[in-house]
Each structure stands twice: as C-alpha cells, then as structure tokens.
Design a protein that fits this description.
Blueprint (H helix, E strand, L loop, with lengths): L2 H11 L7 E11 L11 H21 L3 H16 L1 H4 L2 E10 L4 E11 H11 L12 E15 L4 E18 L4 E18 L4 E7 L2 H13 L3 E4 H7 L6 H11 L4 H13 L4 E9 L3 E2 L6 E13 L6 E15 L2 H26 L4
Parallel strand pairs: 4-8, 4-9
Antiparallel strand pairs: 1-3, 2-3, 4-7, 5-6, 9-11, 10-11, 11-12
Length: 360
C-alpha cells in the first residue's frame, strides 16, 4: 500500500471517534535521503516519519499518566510497539512540510489511542487489581453535569474623551510715527478614554451523568475498589441531601453548598462508604471540528475525594479542573464520548492518587 493510500484509509477511520479512545496530536521532524530520481522523500521515508509520529503520540499519551501507571506502561511498551496499529487504530495527517535543502520532513498527525485497551492491560498489572471482590475500599461518587445552552458575549464599551485648549496673545506699541501690533497663538489637544468589558452571560441545563458514572466506576473497579452510586446511598441511608437539591445548587450557585456536602457525607458514612467523591462537570455547546468535520464537545471536570472514615473528613485526592474532548457524527455521540473520556481520566487520577498513598 502506498503512503497516499494509507493516508486516505486513516482519514476514513477517524470519522467516528468511539468512547474509550483518546485523540492526541503530535509532530516530528524526520531526516531523509531521497531517491535516485527525486530530491524529495520516498514512500519509505514517509512511512518512517509516520512511525516516529506514532511513537510521539504514545509518548504524549504516557506523559498524562500517574507515576504508578507510567511504570506499568513502560513494562508493556514492547508489546504495544509490536502491535502498534492495535493500540493506535486510526490517524490523520494534519500538516506535512518538506525542506529539500536540509532534507528533512516535518509531519503533524492527529491520532486516536485505544485508551480502554491500554487501561485494561495496565489494570491487570496494578497491585490493587489483584484484590478479591469485597476486599477493596468502598467509594461512592456524586458528580453533577450541566451543559451550556446559550452564551451571550457583550460588545466592548468604548468611551472617548477629547479636549481642546487654545491661547492667544496680542501686543501693541506706540511710537511718534505710528502704532505697530503683533499677535500669536498656541494650541493643545488632549485625547483619552476607556474600554469596558462585561462578563459574558451563560445559561445552563442539567445533564444525566449515567455515562460518566458508568465509566468512572469501571476504572475504579478494575483497580480493585468497590463502588456505589450516591443514588443508592441516598435511598438506603438517611440524612443525605437529595440529588435534585444538589443539582439546583450547581445550576444557581456554580457549586454545591457546604450544608449539602455535609449531609451527603453523613449519609455516605452511615452506609459504610470509606471514600466519597464530589464533583462537577461543565459540558460545552457542540461545535464543528475543523480537522475531522465531526461534532466536538468539551467537558471540564473538577472534583475532590474525601476520606470520611473519621469524624473530620479529609481531602485525599483532587481532580482538575481539566478539559477533555469528545467527537462524533452527531451531538449526542460527541457528548457521550466526551463524558466517557472525562470519566476515565478523572477515575485514573483518583486511583493513581489513592494507590500512590497506598490507600486500598
């Protein structure tokens, strides 16, 4: 298969980014020798540059892991390199530049990494993954998601001030033979003003967190932790703040009140939950991706993990604020993928932090 045909196949494969895939952009500069009848790179040179670009994608992907994950990822790296197309199933060339004078080729690609597959390989080798069911600490999570429905951006207000000042002088002298007069003037102009910007106005609506919760709990379960939803906590243990109340607080105040947080933690403690996670997600309005042409949705996640075993809750891990993207042929698919990617990444941060502190 020629290099051009490979590019075409990759472009087609990237049209639908599935949940569990992470999109990464990488650039490499590759020296080439050229062919006998051409001063430009050969197909073999281009293939080598593409391979190096894929390696750069893996390097970028690995840099986003926690220390515990990075160690395991280094162990499975030979297996990943031996089956590179399995772990990087699709890619597209964003830019390509050839410098015939220096005989170098610069290649920029946007590739998808099968995050679910790599995460499964890592989880099998993580210490907590060997624990039997029921042996891990119980974690309950409460995330509230809201989506931007409208955004009003106000024009900049400009105020200009202009001031003119002028001064005229006149004098006359008298002599025996007559009178002479002279006159002069000076002027000064002062300008100034100010610019005022008004904060944009956002409107939000609530979103279901089912997709996020499922992906979040899947990662933690694979790491050996037991999970339970806050809905189960609220139904089985008294005293917790209702989900409706918490959702309304996030819509109106941008955060959960301390009173609701205290009530939620109290109920979770009564249900023998050891670690309680509280977080919020802001989901962007859909937009068209300029590279793939697909719909793109961004999700911003922030949250905290509390150890509630003792009387005073202790913050043992934090997430974000960080942003993750999701792509799809329609808005619903893009949003679902974005929530899945955000949940997977957030759960990894939580698991890495807890395992780094030897918390099981």
């Amino acid at each position: 298969m020629t290099f051009i045909k490979v590019v075409a196949a990759a472009c087609m494969a990237l049209t639908a980014l599935s949940a569990g895939a992470v999109e990464i952009k990488a650039a490499v500069t590759h020296p080439y020798e050229g062919g006998i009848f051409s001063s430009g790179p050969t197909d073999e040179d281009k293939a080598k540059a593409l391979y190096e670009a894929k390696l750069a994608v893996l390097k970028t992907y690995g840099s986003g892991m926690g220390l515990a994950e990075q160690k395991v990822f280094a162990d499975i790296r030979p297996e990943v390199l031996a089956n590179l197309d399995r772990y990087i199933p699709s890619w597209v060339i964003v830019a390509q530049d050839v410098d015939k004078g220096l005989k170098t080729m610069t290649l920029v690609i946007r590739a998808t990494v099968d995050d679910s597959l790599i995460n499964a390989e890592i989880s099998q080798r993580m210490p907590a993954g060997a624990q039997a069911t029921g042996d891990g600490s119980l974690i309950s999570a409460l995330f509230v998601a809201r989506q931007t429905t409208s955004s009003t951006l106000f024009d900049e207000k400009v105020t200009k001030v202009h001031e003119d000042q002028s001064e005229r002088e006149a004098s006359s002298t008298g002599t025996e033979s007559g009178v002479s007069e002279s006159a002069g003037s000076r002027g000064m102009t002062t300008t100034g003003g100010s610019r005022t910007r008004k904060t944009s106005k956002e409107s939000y609506s609530l979103l279901s967190t089912d997709d996020f919760d499922a992906a979040f709990n899947e990662v933690l379960s694979a790491r050996g932790y037991e999970t339970s939803s806050y809905a189960d906590v609220y139904e089985n243990c008294k005293g917790g703040a209702s989900i409706d109340t918490i959702q309304k607080e996030v819509l109106s105040r941008d955060e959960i009140t301390s009173s609701s947080r205290t009530k939620a933690i109290r109920a979770a403690k009564a249900c023998e939950v050891r670690y309680f996670t509280i977080g919020r997600m802001d989901v962007s309005a859909p937009m068209r991706d300029s590279v793939t042409g697909n719909i793109k949705v961004m999700v911003s996640v922030t949250g905290r993990v509390w150890d509630i075993a003792k009387k005073m809750p202790r913050n043992v891990a934090s997430v974000g604020p960080v942003q993750y993207a999701g792509f799809g042929e329609d808005e619903a698919t893009a949003r679902r993928n974005a929530l899945h990617n955000a949940a997977t990444a957030a759960a990894k941060v939580v698991a890495d932090t807890l395992q780094g502190k030897r918390i099981r």
